[in-house]
C-alpha cells in the first residue's frame, strides 16, 4: 500500500470567535470572564435542579474548568468540529449553543439540544459542530479521529478538537487514535483536561507517565502543557495546536485544571484531604480572574456584580425554557439512533418481547 502523504494546508486566520469586547487584552479577558461566570452559574443551577430530581441520569459539571473551556472554545473556528466526554455542558455553551436548549436537554425535554433523548452526557448539535458528549471513557477518540480522516479525504481545512480527561489517556482507544492520527497526519488536536482525578483516582496513581502531554512522544506527535486556569494562555496554546493540526501535524495539548466538586453531582468527594479542598478554594479560576481584572482596573466591583447578575438571570431564563418544554413522545424513541436506515435496527420498547414465541406442537395432536 502506498504510504499516505501529509496533506499540506495553509494555517488559517488565528482569531476564533472571541466576542465584541475583545479588541484589547483587557477586553478579551473581560469577555472570557463573562463566559466563565455564565458557565459557573449554569453549572451551579444544574446541580440544584439535579438534587431536586428535575434532572435524571448522571450529571458531571465543569466547575473549576471554566477557564480551560472558554479558552479552548474561543480558539476554534465555527467550521471546526468538537468531540468531548460527558463533562460537556460548558463546551456547548461556549460553542454558542443556546443555554435554554442545553438546560432543556439536561431536563430531558423535547426542545433540548438532543431532543431530550440524550441528557447531560449526550449533548449533540450538528449546527455548532458539537458531535457529542460521550459517556464511555475514550469513546469519543476513535470517532474524532475518524472525523479528522473524513476532513483529510475531502481536502477540507477544518480541524477536530477532541477533549478528554486525564484518566482517558490510560485507555486503549487513546493510544490507537494517537497512533493512527500521527501515521496519517490527521487534522486533530487531542486535548487532555488534566483535573488531577479520574473519579477518585489521582493521575499519579493511574498513569505510568504523570506528565500526560509527554505521552505524545510515543507517536512522535508534538505536544504542550498549559495552565488551564488562564483562559488567555489556553487560547494561545490551542491556536498553535490547531495551526499545527491544520497543516497535517496532529497535536496533544494538556491543560492543567481542577475539578472543584465531586466527579458527578452525587459524589461528595470524601477522598479529598482538607488541604486539597483549601487549595482549590484559592486556585478557583473564576475568582482569580475577577481579582486580576479588578486589580488591573479592567472591572469595578459594580461591573463584576453586574456580570454575575446578567449570568444568573440568563440561567434562570434557561431553566424557565426547560421547564416549559414538554417531554419527548415515546414514539420518537428510536428516531435518532441512526442517521440512515439500518436493516436490523431494533425498535423494541422496554417490556416488549424479543420475538413472538413459536407455537409448540401439542402432544397427541395430528401432525
Ligand atoms: C470505558 C469506561 N470505563 C469506565 C467508566 C466509568 N468512568 C466514568 S468517568 C471515569 C473517570 C474518567 O476520568 P477522566 O478521564 O479524568 O475524566 P473527568 O471525569 O475527570 O473529566 C470512569 C472511570 C466509563 N464510563 N467508561
Ligand atoms: Mg480527570
UniProtKB/TrEMBL annotation:
<feature type="region of interest" description="Disordered">
    <location>
        <begin position="1"/>
        <end position="26"/>
    </location>
</feature>
<protein>
    <recommendedName>
        <fullName>Pyruvate dehydrogenase E1 component subunit alpha</fullName>
        <ecNumber>1.2.4.1</ecNumber>
    </recommendedName>
</protein>
<comment type="subunit">
    <text>Heterodimer of an alpha and a beta chain.</text>
</comment>
<dbReference type="InterPro" id="IPR017597">
    <property type="entry name" value="Pyrv_DH_E1_asu_subgrp-y"/>
</dbReference>
<dbReference type="InterPro" id="IPR001017">
    <property type="entry name" value="DH_E1"/>
</dbReference>
<keyword id="KW-0560">Oxidoreductase</keyword>
<keyword id="KW-0786">Thiamine pyrophosphate</keyword>
<dbReference type="Pfam" id="PF00676">
    <property type="entry name" value="E1_dh"/>
</dbReference>
<feature type="region of interest" description="Disordered">
    <location>
        <begin position="342"/>
        <end position="367"/>
    </location>
</feature>
<comment type="function">
    <text>The pyruvate dehydrogenase complex catalyzes the overall conversion of pyruvate to acetyl-CoA and CO(2).</text>
</comment>
<dbReference type="InterPro" id="IPR050642">
    <property type="entry name" value="PDH_E1_Alpha_Subunit"/>
</dbReference>
<dbReference type="InterPro" id="IPR029061">
    <property type="entry name" value="THDP-binding"/>
</dbReference>
<feature type="domain" description="Dehydrogenase E1 component">
    <location>
        <begin position="34"/>
        <end position="329"/>
    </location>
</feature>
<keyword id="KW-0670">Pyruvate</keyword>
Amino acid at each position: 500500500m502506498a504510504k499516505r502523504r501529509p496533506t499540506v494546508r495553509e494555517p488559517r486566520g488565528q482569531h476564533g470567535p472571541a466576542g465584541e469586547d475583545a479588541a484589547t487584552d483587557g477586553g478579551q479577558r473581560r469577555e472570557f470572564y463573562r463566559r466563565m461566570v455564565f458557565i459557573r452559574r449554569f453549572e451551579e443551577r444544574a446541580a440544584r435542579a439535579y438534587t431536586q430530581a428535575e434532572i435524571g441520569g448522571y450529571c458531571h459539571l465543569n466547575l473549576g474548568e471554566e477557564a480551560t473551556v472558554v479558552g479552548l472554545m474561543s480558539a476554534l473556528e465555527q467550521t471546526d468540529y468538537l468531540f468531548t466526554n460527558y463533562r460537556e455542558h460548558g463546551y456547548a455553551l461556549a460553542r454558542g449553543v443556546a443555554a435554554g436548549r442545553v438546560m432543556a436537554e439536561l431536563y430531558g425535554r423535547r426542545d433540548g439540544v438532543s431532543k431530550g433523548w440524550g441528557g447531560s452526557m449526550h449533548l449533540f448539535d450538528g449546527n455548532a459542530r458539537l458531535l457529542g458528549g460521550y459517556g464511555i471513557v475514550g469513546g469519543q477518540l476513535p470517532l474524532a479521529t475518524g472525523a479528522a480522516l473524513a476532513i483529510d479525504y475531502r481536502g477540507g481545512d477544518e480541524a477536530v478538537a477532541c477533549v478528554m480527561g486525564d484518566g482517558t489517556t490510560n485507555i486503549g482507544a487513546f493510544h490507537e487514535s494517537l497512533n493512527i492520527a500521527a501515521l496519517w497526519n490527521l487534522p486533530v488536536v487531542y486535548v487532555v483536561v488534566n483535573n488531577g482525578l479520574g473519579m477518585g483516582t489521582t493521575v499519579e496513581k493511574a498513569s505510568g507517565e504523570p506528565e500526560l502531554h509527554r505521552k505524545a512522544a510515543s507517536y512522535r506527535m508534538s505536544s504542550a502543557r498549559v495552565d488551564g486556569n488562564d483562559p488567555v494562555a489556553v487560547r494561545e496554546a490551542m491556536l498553535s495546536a490547531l495551526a499545527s493540526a491544520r497543516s497535517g501535524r496532529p497535536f496533544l495539548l494538556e491543560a492543567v485544571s481542577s475539578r472543584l466538586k465531586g466527579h458527578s453531582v452525587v459524589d461528595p468527594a470524601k477522598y479529598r484531604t482538607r488541604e486539597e479542598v483549601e487549595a482549590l478554594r484559592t486556585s478557583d479560576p473564576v475568582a482569580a480572574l475577577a481579582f486580576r481584572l479588578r486589580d488591573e482596573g479592567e472591572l469595578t466591583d459594580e461591573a463584576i456584580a453586574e456580570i454575575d447578575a446578567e449570568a444568573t438571570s440568563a440561567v434562570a431564563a434557561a431553566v424557565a425554557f426547560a421547564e416549559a418544554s414538554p417531554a419527548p413522545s415515546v414514539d420518537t424513541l428510536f428516531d435518532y439512533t441512526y442517521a440512515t436506515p439500518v436493516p436490523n435496527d431494533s425498535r423494541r420498547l422496554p417490556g416488549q418481547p424479543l420475538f413472538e414465541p413459536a407455537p409448540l406442537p401439542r402432544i397427541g395432536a395430528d401432525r
